[in-house]
Write a structure and sequence with these properties.
The chain is built from twelve helices and nine strands. By secondary structure, it is an alpha+beta fold. The strands form two sheets. It has a six-stranded mixed beta sheet with strand order 7-4-5-6-9-8. Strands 1-3-2 form a three-stranded antiparallel beta sheet. A hairpin with a 2-residue loop joins strand 2 and strand 3.
Amino acid sequence: MLESESISPASVIEWDCFKVLAYFSYFRYPLTALEVWKWLYAPVGRWTLAEVVEVLTHSSWLNERVSVKDGFYALGRDIAEQLKDRHIRFQDALQKYKVLAPVLRYIGRLPFVEGVFVCNSLAFHYTNAKSDIDLFIVTKPGRVWTVRLLVVSMMALLRKRPGEAKVNPICCSFFADSNRLDLASLKIDGEDPYLAYWLATLTPMIDNKGILTRLYTVNRWVGEILPNASGVERAYRWVPKIMRRLPTLAISERRAREMQEKKFTSVICGMKNVDTRVVVNDFMLKFHVNDTRQEILKYLEEKLCVS
């Protein structure tokens, strides 16, 4: 599907570079040479950064298809607009981290929370005024329902949820048990580049149990697909200072599940466990109704039909 057999005019390394630029063109996200090398997706060769820089600089095949400006590379001829947009979105992302800080101080005090990670567009510092602040929350074993109840209840009280907050809504739509961190079962049919990039860019905001290391360990397939990606570290100023944990509540996990399932919308009920967009069980709660992974994969396949 994403192989280079049909692209005879290009060398293998040219094709590997084009492939990653094609993926990020869906988001209109230009890349530096270092980022092209870092995000190479299932490359045929184990290229060095120097080799990637060389081919980006001197390849006539890529020059016909790729624009370059100020050290950034992108498909399309509107790279100046893409660069301007990336800068604006970066500034928006910095504001979102400031908004997130007090929320993290609350979530970090909750019992049974073992990890909180920024994900999706904010992990790339590529948000706009309409973007949600997306969080992936890892809980103690057997406590996904309890933690979700506590988190969502507070977000509702503060009117921070999507659809309630006018700006910078906090989207807590993915919870996982710390004993069930293998996410390979969430792949869509065929290849799933988005899930690989999603995992590789998880940004730890609260991680006192080495959850990120465990995620990388049990999801080794990500490292095979993205061999140059490295774990994300957050700047110290964005790491929340957590006070003592709140007392453990007497509510049972079963009761927490019953309370929340009663409030599920008809859309959630209709999509629940049909595929990997909405997953509801005692180990994982994932509510990605607007999952664009199939659309992204189709877009990438079309972009790769070049000569």
